Structures
1.
Amino acid sequence: MMMRKEYMWAGLAAVCLAAVIGLWLLLSPVWALTLLKDKVSRSLGRELEVAGGVHLEFSPELAVRLDRVSLAGATVMDDDFITASSLRVPLTLSGLFGRSIDLSEVTLRDAQIGLVIDEMGRASWPAKPSPEPQAVKLLIENGAVRFFDRRTAQAFAFNEANMAVTISPTGELTVDGTATINRQHAKLQAYVKDIARVSATGSPAELSLEAPTLSANFNGRLATADGLGLAGTVTLSGPDLRQALRWAGGAPGGTLGFKAFTLTGGLDATGRAFGVEGADLTVDGMGGTGDLTLDFRGETPKLQAVIATDTINLDKYIPAAGGAAGDWGTSPLGFSALRGLDGAVTLNVKNLIYSG
């Protein structure tokens, strides 16, 4: 009788041990690591490295999480294209039991994304169509993006990015989210018709930015073959032109005038040089038309413009003269707003207003 009980307990222990081992094998996500690395390699031609292991998450939903991940650059000599504290992929029960995983949605936490163009014009991001195209939604949480073109030294960056990036099987790209740019919280939206064409002849694109000092909308062509270039229609507006220029990298002085502004016209921009033809411009309630260029490539921004306008009210820009009625003023004319700019501006004005 005792022998039977011993055999029974031994059998029960063996069953429990087998159940534990089976459950461990079922829930162990190691298989997902191999599968994800293989899918990324075949889709992007890049190697996915994982330094922090793979984990199975049950909350807020079933998912596989890879910690301390990096996606290799275009060549072995390049820095990583992407690094992140974690990469998370939702998982279904059928996927868990069937050892399959869907890369249609990926979340990157604390991502550092480097968009770099080298001296030969080669981009760090995958430019060729994937041999296994599929729709992908990339969710970036607290990310940072930096762009640097080694041919022109053009650079920009933003951080604290929370955005959704969607790529269709045909290469269409949409971006929607927020980020901090030059210490200002901004809303960003973008659409690119064909990612592969951006580094070649260019692709149709739409860009939108909403920040406290500037609202911008662009519709036209985006290309990087000869430097980051935009050609199309642009609309700019903001509550303070001086602050908008400072936010963009200029340093205009003064405090008088140059407040609310709007600008609409044909944009042709390469690098940090911007030209607008056929511009409709309003500043401080006064309108004008013409052409202008603004070049941020040097230490001091350069402004060139030919503007025709009906009326300019100088009282908005020149301090009170300081003299009694009928006398010469005693205060110097104020041109401090021109400090920080190297400008050549031609104004065709029908009427000047100045009350002193």
Note: Confidence is low (pLDDT under 50) at residues 13-26.
2.
Amino acid sequence: MGNGLVKKRIARYGAGKSGGYRALVANRPGGPWFFIRGFAKSEMGNVDPVTLKLCRVTARHLLALSGDALADAARERKLKEVICDSQTQERNDQAAPADES
């Protein structure tokens, strides 16, 4: 799709990929993945040209950020890191402070 933007097909539970969801994500080999936009295929079959252009510009800007800039954006809550690695998630769960209520 250009500028590191990729469309991924995501299966709907019990229905498979063809009638499922689509996600526009940005990535460079060996780098982080950025979720740009998601939608049900039934909601929008193809991405309209204006949305596609905006997503490409967003992808280009995100992929140009340095590691320090990404860390700053996460700290300032401009970006949110999503961790899907079960081992990493287990480490984060163990490190989380106990609920004091």
Note: The mean pLDDT is 80.
3.
Amino acid sequence: MKVLLLLVVAVLAVAHARRYSAEERYQPAESRRQLAVPAAALYRARAADDDDDDDNDGDSGDASDWQQSPTTEEPCPDACKLVYDPVCVRDDDGVYRKFSNNCFLQKCRCDTNFRYKIVSMRKCQGNDLPECPRPSRSYGRARPEEDLDVADSDSSASD
């Protein structure tokens, strides 16, 4: 009886291994379903960007192309899996950054209020910048030039 039970478990394990890839086997079924929609949206964004191969770094496109605040569909992740599925983005300063995967991109967006537009991976070839920019001292302020006022007053006070 034990041998029969062991044989059934072995057959089920082999069938499961053939059905799912290595990455899928180590993810709960719920995450596989949740990742299906963002992955499809990411593919459409990459395909659309491959079609328009403009190299200007200005603010091309309308404001709806830029993504900033978290949505209910994509909550802020606490941690990301170490799966390499690179994503290239252009921030609102025109700097290209490459993220290891979409989760790290979402985490950066949540942690620093990072604004970006997903672009073709060709734009990030040879890019060695850190994935997520550090938040500036002006994060959350209405006017970034307040930093200059503070720096000027600090230097004049030390003279």
Note: The longest helix spans residues 29-51.
